[in-house]
Amino acid sequence: MQKLMLLNNQAPGDIVMLTAAVRDLHRCYPSQFLTDVRTNCMELWENNPYLTPLNITDRDVEIVDCRYPLFEKSNRMPVHFLQGFVDDLNRKLGLQIKISEFKGDIHLSDEEKGRPSPVEERTGQNGLYWIIVAGGKFDITIKWWHFRRWQAVIDHFRDRIQFVQVGLEGHYHPPLKGVIDLRGKTPRRELIRLVYHALGVLCPVTLLMHLAAAVETKPGTAKSRPCVVVAGGREAPHWAAYPTHQFIHTVGTLPCCAEGGCWKVRTVPLGDGDYRDEERYLCVDVVDGLPRCMEMITPKHVIPFVELYLNQFAQPPRAKAEYGQPAGTGWNLSAAAYHAPDGLTPHFLSEVGPSEQCKRVAHNLQNPIVRRSQCQPNQP
Amino acid sequence: MTGRSGGSPTHSSQFIDPRSEEDFDPRFYPKADGASATSTESSDRDDWIKLEFCAVYYRLNQLHAKLTEMRGNAGEPDGESCAPELMQEIEKQLRLRDELEDRYSPYGVIAEAIAKDGFTVKIKFTFGDRTVLREQRTRLVSSTALIFFAEPDEPN
What we know:
The structure holds two protein chains of two kinds. In chain A, strand 4 (130-132), helix 5 and strand 5 form a beta-alpha-beta unit. In chain A, strands 6-5-4-7-8-9 form a six-stranded parallel sheet, sandwiched between helices. Chain A has a three-stranded parallel sheet with strand order 2-1-3, covered by helices on one side. In chain A, 30% of the residues lie in helices and 12% in strands. Chain A has helices at 12-28, 82-93, 110-114, 118-123, 147-156, 188-197, 207-214, 237-240, 292-295, 299-312, 316-323, 335-338, 354-366; strands at 2-8, 33-39, 61-65, 130-132, 163-165, 179-181, 200-204, 227-232, 246-249, 286-287, 290-291. Chains A and B meet through strand 10 and helix 13 of A and helix 1, helix 2, strand 2 and helix 3 of B.
């Protein structure tokens, strides 16, 4: 059998894409390859059945530096990110691997699946929750949406969705109010378990959207995990979006992304000496500190997409049975609470008038940082 | 801000350091990352950002103290009905705080207010770009190169 050592040092989201390529290499060519990997974020490969420990210095081990130059064609061809590494392996190894599933390939052990969610382990409460990512890395700041806009979405779903905020320490993840704050507290495997237990994910284009698709859902729950992605105009939707996600983009609506994603990197130069501060990597249309493509997307656009999922799960008997939520446990998020009281009509704190704002000023002063949701666990 | 924003953000030219005012009350001036904010002589961008946030939270603390006192005197739990000017001033300062947050958020700056009894006692700052650079400088980088070549055939 041919021995392959696959190398890649890119971001975790890229590695999730590589897991799909390895899966489909073995599915298309069973018993013909032994594969091992040396990548960033090796935790994503734990429990992966397609890996065999190989010694990188053995002469019969072929080393493959995995890349996805296919992205350069993504504005001209109907290709998805999942095909990126597959295309690269096909060219480098003379193969014809085909993608078999529209997701990455992340595996949890039975022990991991049997454990309570990281939220329950930390708080003792086993309610339903969505994950929110309200920032990202400093290398691609153009993906960021304004934290007050994320906050408006959180506020809209107060008492209906418990959000859990995550984000890697050292990256930009401004604190949100009314969420369970797990920023900087979820090592990768814990993050994967967090996704496993999550009802949904709300995020920009980032690792979590790939995990939302790649991590299996719990038995008895929906077959695909809801995910709403605030994407803007950086990447063509057919390249980045998953079919069961709500991918909110502006490609085709602005001169800078009229023919596809702009693939720019930063909104403004950060002055950190990074090459990404160069003119050619910067957004060409910044409005109030946001790329225009992200500024065009408001909470009014995002909320209805979340509502779509909530309405899907709003049938009371079905919801309880599907989620296996025992009575008297968790947060007080009943199926009725999931149902939008006013249909798809969004309302925002930002739309509150001056007098109402004044009434809330004192409250805000008392609670400038609310780390925990006001949702209370049900009394037994 | 429309169009390309170049270079680092600039602080407001109208900035007034409350510490230079006659009625300055140090009890209301928050710590910046656990330390006193530097002087206005500093030319460092991060120092100026700290000064600006400390100033706005100082004024909010001042106003909160007034509001608390007024509530006590009026015997009203809400109090805002008898102090519309005060509430307007608080709202104005909150807007200034929001403007500061908006100005610096594209650069990854987070100013997280830590409150005690309704007063902001400390501001935790995160300056991402510098953090990343520091990480990159201190991170140990290892590199391995493997070169394979065929051994020459044994001579007959």
